[in-house]
Amino acid sequence: NSRHPRKDEL
Amino acid sequence: MNIFRLAGDMTHLASVLVLLLKIHTIKSCAGISLKTQELYALVFATRYLDIFTNYISFYNTIMKLIFLGSSFSIVWYIKRHKIVHRSYDKDQDTFRHWFIVLPCLVLALLINERFTFKEVMWTFSLYLEAVAILPQLVLLQRTRNIDNLTGQYVFLLGAYRALYILNWIYRYFTEDHYIHWITWIAGLVQTLLYADFFYYYFQSWKNNAKLELPA
What we know:
Chain B: One of its GO terms (cellular component) is endoplasmic reticulum membrane. Chain B: Pfam families: ER_lumen_recept. Chain B: It is found in: Endoplasmic reticulum membrane. Chain B: InterPro entries: ER_ret_rcpt (IPR000133). Chain B: It is a multi-pass membrane protein. The complex is a heterodimer of chains A (10) and B (215). Chain A is low in regular secondary structure and 10 residues long. The mean pLDDT of chain A is 65. Chain B has 215 residues and is mainly alpha-helical. Chain B has one domain. Helix content of chain B is 71%, strand content 0%. Chain B has eight helices and no strands. Chain B is globular and about 45 Å long. In chain B, 34% of the residues are buried. Chains A and B meet through loops of A and helix 1 and helix 3 of B.
C-alpha cells in the first residue's frame, strides 16, 4: 500500500 | 524495483543459500556462529510481521518466505541436526545475545517513525540486522582460519547491504519524499561493520593467500 513506500523493501 | 535492489536481494539470497549448501552438503557448521543465525532469524521474524496482511508483490512475499524459511532451518540444522550439531563450537561462539538484542530494542522504542507495535518491531529488526553479524565476526577472529564458504557467506552479506545503499541513493534521487534516515543510518552502520572484513578478504584474495584476520 502507498502508506509506507519504504516497506516495499525486504 | 531498481537494479541495485534486485542485485542486493539476489546477493542476500545467495548468502543464505551458500550457507545452507555448506551445512547440507558437508554436514558441518564449523566456523558458523549459531548466535548470528539466531539473530538473523529474529530479524526476519520481527521485520516480516505483516507478510500476510500487507501484500506488496508476489516477489516480495516469496522472498520473505525464503528468508524466513532459510534462516530458521539454518538454526534448526545447527541446533537439532544429529550430525551437524556436533560440529558446532559452542565454547568459541560465546557472544551474549542480550548485549545486542536489548540495546536494539531500547533504541527502537526511543527512535522510531511511529510508536506502534509493528513499527517498533520493524525498527528493531533494522537495528538488529545492522549488528547481527558481530558474533560471527568475533568467532572468525577467534578461530582465525576462515574456510572459503564462511568467507563467501560474510562477503555476500556485506555486499547485499552495500548494494542496498546504492538502491537508497538511487531512490532518493528518483522518487520524491523517499527519505528514511533510520533505514539509511542502520544500513550504513551495518556496511561499515563489514568494511574491515572486506579489506582482509580482498587482501587474501589478491595475494591468493588464506584469509587470516588479525588477532
